[in-house]
Amino acid sequence: MLSSSFFHSILLATTFCFPSALATAESDFDWRTLHASKTLHWTPCYSAPLQCTLLQVPMDYNAPRNGVTASIAIVRYPSTSPKSQYRGPLLFNPGGPGGSGVDAIVGAGADFATAFGEQFDVVGVSYSTPTISFFKTEAERRFLIPSATNVLYASFNASSVSLADTYANMQLMGQLAIENDPNGYLQHMSTDNIARDMLSITEAFGFEKLQYWGVSDDKVGRLIIDGVEDMNAYYTANFTNDMLDTDKSMQTFYSGCAEAGAQACAFHAPSASQVAANLAALTASVKAEPIAVLTPQSHGILDYVFLRNAVLDALFDPYNSFAALAEGLAALASGNATLLYAQNEVPTFECDCTAPAPAFHENNFEAYMAIECGDGLPVNDTIAQLQQFYEDGLKVSTSFADLLLTTRVLCAGYKIHRQGRFTGPVGAKNTSFPLLLVGNTLDPVTPHANADSVGHTSLVATSDCTFSYYKAYFVNGTLPPPGTVCSVEAELFPSPGSTSSNATAKRTTENLEEIKIREAATRIGSVVRKILRRAL
Ligand SMILES: *[C@@H]1O[C@H](CO)[C@@H](O)[C@H](O)[C@H]1NC(C)=O
Ligand SMILES: *[C@@H]1O[C@H](CO)[C@@H](O)[C@H](O)[C@H]1NC(C)=O
Ligand SMILES: *[C@@H]1O[C@H](CO)[C@@H](O)[C@H](O)[C@H]1NC(C)=O
Ligand SMILES: *[C@@H]1O[C@H](CO)[C@@H](O)[C@H](O)[C@H]1NC(C)=O
Ligand SMILES: *[C@@H]1O[C@H](CO)[C@@H](O)[C@H](O)[C@H]1NC(C)=O
Ligand SMILES: *[C@@H]1O[C@H](CO)[C@@H](O)[C@H](O)[C@H]1NC(C)=O
Ligand SMILES: *[C@@H]1O[C@H](CO)[C@@H](O)[C@H](O)[C@H]1NC(C)=O
């Protein structure tokens, strides 16, 4: 178990975590009215009781006195405890990388306070400047990054040219990154610097030790393996073992749907293998015959890649997505593509074509590529080697290797790797930032991604047990016993009406505090899910 109190003060959700250094979203507060400084000056923002500040940090932590700085936008939901009980900042990161911590606190600040205790200032960051972009205008960005849908991944299996095309496309992104980064900021977008930023924030609050709740940025469903090995794979840009549980997650859709019955699962068939076969047939049909869809919000093509992404997306958040996915698939199978399309669409982009990228513009793709690929070793693979990498990966997962392993192709395009950045090895007992975010701290938190629940991170499935451990951990430093397994109070395919009636039944038998925490956790989960979807 953990011995150093420094380790105790850190909690890692499932795998690896990033604060959202750079992200944007709709905002009611104009951060440009604030001036960055080395100390925290709080200003009321958004809605009471939220407060905001801009903290100045070194751009290059190895040359802190060269005068080049970055500013981190910080929002807090202030502690209401008396001073004697005040415990400082608790940093929350919704993951991504690219999800806005500011949006999380703006959306659910009070719920964080309920879930973790009023002793903390609950803190989220994002909107940092200078804002990086690979593009000169927002129009160029939207033209080059397919954002008409929720499609995140390319697929190796879409056609015989998709690997080569994706490869060339990512080379282009990597070259645009260099072209649009004359000041060399991108090299500093890395996990080690983000970890240093978080420590800077903590210190600016007058505290020594980081208190952190991060949601994994990893895109793979429900992986908990040895965190140590996992991290070394991350730093070698080898995402293969991320897929160890992907096929099992997919299987829960098939078996859950078969067991749930036609009432609860619209894509129902009598056996799991029949559900699987029906989905395969539907996928093949869409591959042969993609469908044009027009909705009031947007228009696009429901093709193989769209469908595969829609299914994978649901695997990340099965308790909230499986039933809807089943409805979308059933409608598609009966000839109506609109529902499944609409579940994954984003509004058609419109803009003034000549407008430069605004000060706080969307750059989730850039943040993702810069951090995920900039952290790791340079990927030097040829197209043939990437093809081999994919084929090797199929031995680990047949269900989504074609999508998930395209991350390596993404990284093959990215050429900015700061000399001296942290690249492992991970797993030493006594490490400093950012190693202590990983490895050892995973063990005590196995409840939030164990074999008992499906999906990615504890937020996708509400569990009283998990959240009560979180609170005990943050408030008292108490760790759950090794190997603790929490069950989830949710069903993959709830039968109509079951959720509310069960919630009512439980209300009478449980104490109010637990119910309050559960409701808060549910709202946090829903806010974070929205942020992450947008981050993609
Ligand atoms: C690739 O697509 C074909 C349909 O064209 C399908 O039969 C096959 O299972 C897919 N392979 C993988 C690994 O997804
Ligand atoms: C990636 O990791 C897998 C699983 O550990 C391994 O089999 C494979 O050889 C690795 N590939 C590369 C290119 O390092
Ligand atoms: C297809 O589904 C959409 C969304 O569920 C619905 O609004 C529409 O009426 C359906 N179209 C047809 C032709 O049934
Ligand atoms: C790519 O090549 C560079 C320079 O030779 C090397 O340092 C790096 O380790 C290589 N990347 C991988 C993933 O092997
Ligand atoms: C780890 O750090 C503690 C406290 O600084 C020290 O007492 C201990 O010897 C270190 N252990 C190792 C293996 O370096
Ligand atoms: C923290 O410890 C105190 C004293 O043991 C206990 O009363 C309290 O319930 C604990 N708080 C949490 C959130 O576990
Ligand atoms: C309600 O919850 C209980 C456990 O508390 C569970 O056994 C039961 O299946 C649930 N009922 C429905 C209809 O979901």
From TrEMBL:
SUPFAM superfamilies, per the entry: alpha/beta-Hydrolases
Lineage: Eukaryota, Fungi, Dikarya, Basidiomycota, Agaricomycotina
Tree of life domain: Eukaryota
Keyword Lipid biosynthesis annotated: no
Keywords: Signal
Residues in Peptidase S33 tripeptidyl aminopeptidase-like C-terminal domain copies: 402-486
UniProt name for this protein: Peptidase S33 tripeptidyl aminopeptidase-like C-terminal domain-containing protein
Pfam families cross-referenced by the UniProt entry: Abhydrolase_4 (PF08386)
Record carries keyword Signal: yes
InterPro entries reported for this sequence: AB_hydrolase_fold, Pept_S33_TAP-like_C
